[in-house]
Design a protein that fits this description.
Layout (H helix, E strand, L loop, with lengths): L1 H11 L3 H20 L5 E2 L3 H11 L13 H25 L8 E2 L14 H16 L3 H26 L2
Antiparallel strand pairs: 1-2
Length: about 160
Amino acid sequence: MGIGLFDFLKYWNLNSSFALFLLSRSLIICYLFLKREPSFKRDHSIIRIVSYISTFLPFLYLSSPSALSPQLSSLLKISIILFNSFSLYSLITLGRSFGISPSKRTYINSGPYKFIKHPAYTGYFFSEICLVLLNFRIENLIILLISSTLYFFRAVRENKILNDI
């Protein structure tokens, strides 16, 4: 819940509808996290810490005045909402199999998981690219590079756990 409130307050001055979207997304993620099924096998390695860092790392993105045209700025904001919606749809598809750190839960191969192995990370990745383009700063670019690397390591570790069936 605190994550959703943080999202809401951080983006309220930029765009109130965007802030409301992020708040609702965070509330759904919190609900899924609380209702998740117990894991069959949990990863107790450093990747668990990496998972939590990569989950909260996007909160470090900084806003900046944009030199972009209003049309391009609007296109990037719409893209952020669409990519975040895709990630949210992916998480909702996971249902009770959702978790932050890699764990052995029920294997899902429906919805977007039928076509993409890690659709939530894919959506987050493209959303964060759009966010960095919208608020270009070297600090944001560094966060994007770290975030993308951490998503990759999470995906690799999740694959290993799921393949150990």
